[in-house]
Amino acid sequence: MRENEAMFQEYLQDHGVVFFKASEISQDTTYHGVRNTLVPIKYWDNMVKVCKLAQEIRQHFGKPVKINSGYRCKAYNKAISGAAVSQHMFGKALDIRINGVPPAKIAAWMDATYPHKYGRGLYHSFAHIDVREGYAKWKG
Length: 140
Fold this sequence. Notes:
Blueprint: H1 5-14, H2 22-25, E1 30-31, E2 34-35, H3 44-61, E3 66-69, H4 74-79, E4 93-97, H5 103-113, E5 118-122, E6 127-130, E7 135-139
Parallel strand pairs: 5-7
Antiparallel strand pairs: 1-2, 3-4, 4-6, 5-6
């Protein structure tokens, strides 16, 4: 377990995030020699907010939400060719999928539930959700 990962897990649980683990949200992975880091403490509140949004989605569809990508440190985001100002780098975004639910249905739920709020991206095999201050929508 990475340093502070247990503290982050406890923080998530204390703030009502019950379906996701710190290790899912901030994956310990390496790409082309660049290792992702744990979510910095300054972004923990952002992660709670986006995880609660994912929990709403889980409740609506009645199925577990799988996180493909959560927090990304700047160097890791750059290594994987993420957007230059990706919400993932601020702990505000998750790329998710739900077995048996097309990503378009997740995006449609976001449109209906938060029509002028947050970000959502539609991709072939997953949906991007984020809790940015404004509104954004795209297809990848």
